[in-house]
Design goal:
Order of helices and strands of chain A: HEEHHHHHHHHHHHH
CATH superfamily of chain A: MetI-like
CATH topology of chain A: MetI-like fold
Largest interface: A-B, 105 and 99 residues
Number of strands of chain B: 0
Largest sheet of chain B: none
CATH architecture of chain A: Orthogonal Bundle
Number of domains of chain A: 1
Strand content of chain A: under 5%
Mean pLDDT of chain A: 87
Distance between the termini of chain B: 31 Å
Number of strands of chain A: 2
Radius of gyration of chain A: 24 Å
Low-confidence stretches of chain B: 1-12
Radius of gyration of chain B: 27 Å
Oligomer: heterodimer
Mean pLDDT of chain B: 82
Structural class of chain A: mainly alpha
Largest sheet of chain A: 2 strands, antiparallel
Low-confidence stretches of chain A: none
Strand content of chain B: under 5%
Order of helices and strands of chain B: HHHHHHHHHHHHHH
Helix content of chain B: 55-70%
Distance between the termini of chain A: 27 Å
CATH superfamily of the largest domain in chain B: MetI-like
CATH class of the largest domain in chain B: Mainly Alpha
Shape of chain B: globular
Shape of chain A: globular
Number of helices of chain B: 14
Number of domains of chain B: 2
């Protein structure tokens, strides 16, 4: 390395140093600390007491709410991820058409995702109101008696999915898919036209493969987001009725900040991390089968 | 669309062809396609907007018109004073200024530190750079929720609970990796010739960033600004964990507080028209921000080529 290269390297380290410090302070050490805490019993007031893997044993073997919250979160994710992805894809395809008033449509599609979550939940609680809410009133017009959405064990989860999908469809995912669509070179469509491909064939054989990296990205983001679902359950249903919306993060939050079982909650946090990483890894593993990277994987 | 006419059976195809030709099919067909696209876009847009329209209508009603069956879809007169009344039922002006302060400081820190770090990753060569960048990408997968307990204990130890520091300070240390990633990808698309020329002329690296690259990075910065503004403005989980004093609440916490408020002034919890009014008010800054910056916004993402 010449002196000049060394000086440049040093400058490079200097520029990224805020992130290195931030990573150490706010990510790396907290993760180590939480791994340690997960092996202890700790209520903040007294010093942590080492109990080995007992917290993990309690979560997996004893705590009914743990499995309930795992099931609820999985149920939610299975509904939310495909619905929001299909919605985002549809919205992106629509916005990619050459139509007038793009800015207006874009803003219309985007508004739900920039609405403060708490505000959107308050609005949806009113929409889903059993007696007077607009949704059941509208259903009544076509002769359907709407269910008591958020307060019925059967409909609470679908209601939460509905609010979340509404907030997610037009957001970052739609923008990333739209960006992906706009990045597809026109030559490919021209070539397909020469070969006499019809619309569906062009969509299937040009658009989808070229868009697959963006779809993959949104899928991973959606998965990570779905596992953390918290706010609607905290504000609208308080985990109920009958634990129907006790999602994983709500269980973690209550363990940590209401029961002050910091050790147990740390174990829950680590289990969530392991499951998240495993599912993301699985996505990457499956990705090689359906994601098409132009010029290989080495982006 | 016009190609869908090409059905497999040749006889049917020829019949279709002649019919379409006689109607000067191409133009008609593409006009129908356009109309369908517009209708779908409009339907989608209305689906997105409907909850707001309901909220808006409710927020302007007299309470006697809210709880009715069959419902009254539109208020018989527009009671704008509902907004004034709702606003005065809780210290919303304070919540609003709190939110502006927290969002402003956090967003500023995020943009400054994000730019510097992205510049370091994009324009300098140093041992371990690519490995560190992979670590950075990996942190995007780790949810903040996972480290919430030790972070809470750390901030408690620092006596930062019930201050805005836990919400602001991390942004100055690179903050969320996504913004660094976004700006680095964008920087990679800018040609190096200009910074090299400036370097030969003796410009320092900070000056190159400030005078040459920053003006070109405007779309990426606008994108990062919108994302980070929205994220901090709308944040609920972290403020919920770190703030317990009402006078420090942000709007999101304030809304939650208002929802559970039993006010003597109105003899019970706030009715729907008040809730809808404040829900709408907290959303308006977002809509204005997005509408005014959206041009940059889309370009920022398209040009940085974020895929996977």
């Amino acid at each position: 390395m010449t002196a000049r290269q060394r000086r440049k390297a040093l400058k490079g380290y200097l520029y990224i140093s805020p992130w290195i410090a931030g990573f150490a302070i706010f990510v790396f050490f907290p993760m180590l600390a939480s791994a340690f805490l997960s092996l202890t019993q700790y209520d903040i007031l007294a010093a942590p007491r080492f109990i080995g893997l007992a917290n993990y044993g309690y979560a997996l073997g004893v705590d009914d709410y743990f499995w309930k919250s795992v099931y609820n979160t999985a149920h939610y994710a299975v509904l939310f991820i495909p619905l929001s992805l299909l919605g985002s894809l549809g919205a992106a395809l629509l916005l990619n058409q050459r139509i007038r008033g793009q800015a207006v449509f874009r803003t219309m599609f985007f508004i739900p995702s920039i609405t403060p979550v708490v505000a959107s939940i308050l609005i949806w609680m009113w929409i889903l109101n059993y007696e007077f809410g607009p949704l059941n009133s509208a259903l009544a017009i076509i002769g359907i008696q709407g269910p008591p959405w958020l307060s019925s064990t059967r409909w609470a989860k679908p209601s939460v999915v509905m609010m979340s999908v509404w907030g997610a469809v037009g957001g970052g995912n739609m923008i990333i898919l739209l960006a992906g669509l706009q990045g597809i070179p026109q030559e490919l469509y021209d070539a397909a036209n020469i070969d006499g491909a019809n619309r569906w064939q062009k969509f299937q054989d040009v658009t989808l493969p070229m868009l697959s990296p963006s779809v993959f990205f949104t899928l991973v983001v959606g998965l990570i987001g779905a596992l953390k679902i918290f706010t609607p359950a905290y504000i609208a249903t308080d985990g109920g009725p009958g634990y129907a919306t006790l999602f994983y993060m709500l269980h973690l939050f209550r363990s940590a900040f209401q029961s002050l079982s910091m050790g147990y909650a740390s174990a829950l946090a680590w289990l969530l991390l392991v499951v998240t990483l495993a599912l993301v890894w699985l996505q990457f593993y499956l990705a090689s089968r359906w994601v098409y990277y132009e010029g290989g994987m080495g982006r | 669309m016009r190609d869908q006419v090409a059905l497999r059976l040749p006889r049917i195809r020829s019949v279709y062809r002649s019919v379409y030709r006689s109607l000067s099919g191409r133009r008609l067909h593409s006009a129908i396609g356009k109309a369908i696209v517009y209708l779908l876009a409009l339907a989608f847009g209305l689906l997105f907007l409907a909850p707001f329209l309901f909220a808006l209508s409710t927020s302007l009603k007299d309470p006697s018109e809210i709880y009715l069956f069959p419902p009254k879809w539109l208020p018989s007169q527009l009671l704008w004073q509902n907004y004034v009344e709702a606003w005065s039922l809780a210290p919303f002006t304070r919540f609003l200024t709190n939110t502006i302060v927290v969002t402003g400081f956090a967003m500023f820190g995020q943009l400054v530190s994000g730019c510097l770090v992205a510049y370091g990753f994009a324009r300098f060569r140093f041992p371990g750079r690519d490995q560190l960048f992979i670590v950075l990408l990996a942190t995007m997968i780790i949810p903040v929720e996972v480290t919430i307990i030790p972070s809470f204990l750390l901030f408690k130890y620092l006596n930062w609970l019930d201050t805005w520091l836990p919400l602001i300070v991390p942004a100055y240390f690179g903050g969320s990796a996504f913004y660094i990633f976004l700006m680095r990808q964008f920087l990679l698309t800018l040609p190096r010739e200009m910074d090299e020329a400036a370097e030969i002329d003796g410009a320092g690296s900070l000056r190159i960033l400030w005078q040459i690259l920053l003006p070109l990075m405007r779309p990426a910065i606008a994108t990062a600004a919108i994302f980070s503004f929205v994220r901090h403005w709308n944040a609920f989980f972290l403020p919920l964990v770190y703030l317990s004093k009402q006078r420090l609440f942000t709007l999101s916490l304030g809304l939650r507080y208002f929802q559970n408020l039993e006010s003597q002034a109105i003899g019970g919890p706030p009715a729907e028209h008040y809730l809808m009014a404040v829900a709408i008010v907290t959303t308006i800054p977002m809509v204005i921000l997005f509408f005014s910056l959206q041009q940059y916004f889309i370009r920022g993402i398209v040009m940085s080529g974020i895929k996977g």
